[in-house]
Amino acid sequence: MADRMCATTDDAFSQGLVPACTCPCGAGRRRFLGFLGGAAAVAAGMGDAAAREGVDVGPPSQLSKLVSAESVERAATQQYAQMLGQAANRGTLAPESHPQVQRLRAIARRLIPHTYEWNPRAREWRWQVQLLVSKQINAFCMPGGKIAFYWGILAQLQLSDDEVAMIMGHEMAHALREHAREQMGKRFATRGAIEIGSALLGLGNGGRLLADMGGQLLNMSFGRADETEADLVGLELAARGGYDPRAGVTLWQKMARASQRSSVELLSTHPSGPTRISGIEANLPKVLPLYARAAKPEQVFGPPPGAPLPTAPARR
């Protein structure tokens, strides 16, 4: 496991998401694993018997290639750091030692190794997981593996570990499938030629187009197709990580009930409804065998008790 994750950098190590590799035989083992990976690729092309197990969502959108992955991830890193800095200044960033922070990071550790197949860049991402002290029912994962959960989604919905894994897998899937990059590519395709052309003629400021779009990463919404794709990829990530994918049904049932009581921030960008639940149920047979074979978590955390919001001293 450590050898598969060696390329992941310091942020993930500091949060305990990815163990550092200190094994002296790591290089040899990686060469051997590379040989096995090549053999597996050959086998995959030999017929239906070696077909991939799990969900099928097709190839990523070609529109994402209109914007570089590096520029999107760099913008996300900057926005995430700015958001955390503001939260720390206000005292709304949960302390590292808080049990729910440890819970979120423990679940992330189980899901991250299964992200690499969906996006090879995920091996290089500086994965981070933070908990924001807010009553909002919300969570997200920005490009490059920048994850944040809000206290409200854990406490108000009383989420089980399985349900947290469903949300985390779903949000990871948006980053892995580069939905934000795709959205930026679409906007670039429709606006870019006009604005950049105007800039070249001295009639506009097309040079700011990508920067302006990058500034919207925190509040970006996705279409129905992207949401369905994230549901299915997240379902598989959670199942392979040892979390019951049937929790995807109970999760969205809870979301629907919460939305009847009050406005749910997450549902403004993640619409819920019977169709969504039906889609998850239809794909459960594809991921339940993965869950059955997966190693299960040794520790069960559970939702936070009805206690006050976690607090940390505000920076002065």
Describe this entry's structure for a reader:
This protein is mostly helical. Helix content is 51%, strand content 4%. It has one domain (3-29, 67-293). It has helices at 10-14, 26-44, 69-90, 99-111, 151-155, 161-176, 179-200, 209-214, 224-240, 247-261, 274-293; strands spanning 128-132, 139-142, 146-150. A hairpin with a 3-residue loop joins strand 2 and strand 3. The chain is built from 11 helices and 3 strands; from the N terminus they run H-H-H-H-E-E-E-H-H-H-H-H-H-H. Helix 10 (247-261) runs antiparallel to helix 11. The chain starts with 9 loop residues before the first helix and ends in a 23-residue tail after the last helix. Mean pLDDT is 79; it is low at 1-9, 20-24, 26-49 and 197-207. The protein has a 3-stranded mixed β-sheet with strand order 1-3-2, with helices on both faces.
Q: Could you outline the blueprint of secondary structure elements for this entry?
A:
Layout: H1 10-14, H2 26-44, H3 69-90, H4 99-111, E1 128-132, E2 139-142, E3 146-150, H5 151-155, H6 161-176, H7 179-200, H8 209-214, H9 224-240, H10 247-261, H11 274-293
Parallel strand pairs: 1-3
Antiparallel strand pairs: 2-3
How do you describe this structure in short?
51% of the residues lie in helices and 4% in strands. The chain is mainly α and 316 residues long.
What is the terminal separation in angstroms? 41 Å
Strand line-up in the sheet with most strands = 1-3-2
Indicate the overall shape. globular
Note poorly predicted spans.
1-9, 20-24, 26-49, 197-207
Helix content: 40-55%
Mean pLDDT: 79
Order of helical and strand elements: HHHHEEEHHHHHHH
Strand content: under 5%
